[in-house]
Amino acid sequence: MLIDDPAAAVLGLAWAQLPPLPAHAPVLFLGARPSAWLASVAAPAWHFAQDFKPHADALQALGYSVTPVAEAERHARVLLLPPRQRQAARALLARALEHCAEDGQVLLAAANDEGARSLQGDLAALAGPLQALTKQHCRGVWTAPLRAERINHALRAEWRALDAPRDNAAGFCSRPGLFAWDRIDPGSQLLAAQLPATLSGAVADLGAGWGYLSSQLLQRCAGVTDLDLYEADARALQPARINLARVPHTARIEVHWHDVTHGLPRRYDAIISNPPFHVDRADRPEWDRRSSRAPPRRCCRTGSRGWWPTGTCPTRRRWRRISGTSRS
């Protein structure tokens, strides 16, 4: 089933304003999400890129190939659905221009209450005059055929660098667009302070982000022998690895790009998590309900414990039913 995604639908309307491309013309879709209009226009030459594992899996289930983009790739058109976070969105705009060929065009769409007008101004600052349409409380925007002399190359380089991992104010490696990228989330901090020093064995961190909880676990719990981080946002994996490399430890560590709603591949002695209640600005508790399905009995050893930073979320009741114990 296709997700209800007005921005993706409006991107399709923007696409329909442009002349048809030959079937062999290369097209890149950054931040791609499923939408009904893709079935009628997407060709084998299209390249889909998506860092969020549930969206990537949904695209692949529909038959679209989701793969990394090589630096040298150039495309006749580049489509994008930018993230809400301003620095991450600007970095993606710059990346779109890098991958767009001479005389190619860049198209984007976003919800009005998620910065669509600001994104339009940012793209104009990079690429010059634009056209736009509005529908379903969203805005679709596209460039004229790109010319090198109209592109602000200095601004593009500046914004492209915004995506680079860097230390935040708390001293942890992160990057714009990740959850609580520039600070330590209070819920995670509260949970970390409650982790018992006796916690040991194999541990999983669900929705690990840039690795704060796991780094604190390694510092506080010397008995941890195996630690698996599961994170749906591929952009968080490198910062997480950097942060864990800074902590002296002897545990075996793996960082996985994985949607935990599909379950886990092994059993654990303990599972820690700050569940994802929000996607962008939207309050989406169904993500927590879905993530709480991740630790079924086949993933939990007898006597396992689960640790979450709340006493009321559905995961606590579910964990009691699964393992007979919980901590929150």
TrEMBL record:
* UniProt keyword rRNA processing present: yes
Q: Which segments constitute the Methyltransferase small domain?
A: 172-283
- Which Pfam families does the record cross-reference, listed alphabetically? MTS (PF05175)
Q: Does the keyword rRNA processing apply?
A: yes
Which source organism does the UniProt entry give? mine drainage metagenome
List, in alphabetical order, the Gene Ontology terms for molecular function in this entry: nucleic acid binding; S-adenosylmethionine-dependent methyltransferase activity
Q: Which UniProt keywords apply?
A: Cytoplasm, Methyltransferase, rRNA processing, Transferase
The UniProt entry, under CDD domains, shows:
AdoMet_MTases (cd02440)
* Gene3D superfamilies per UniProt: Vaccinia Virus protein VP39
- GO biological process annotation, one example: methylation
PROSITE patterns the UniProt entry points to: N6_MTASE
The family database entries (InterPro entries) matched by this protein are listed as: DNA_methylase_N6_adenine_CS, RsmC/RlmG, SAM-dependent_MTases_sf, Small_mtfrase_dom
The name this protein goes by in its record:
Ribosomal RNA small subunit methyltransferase C
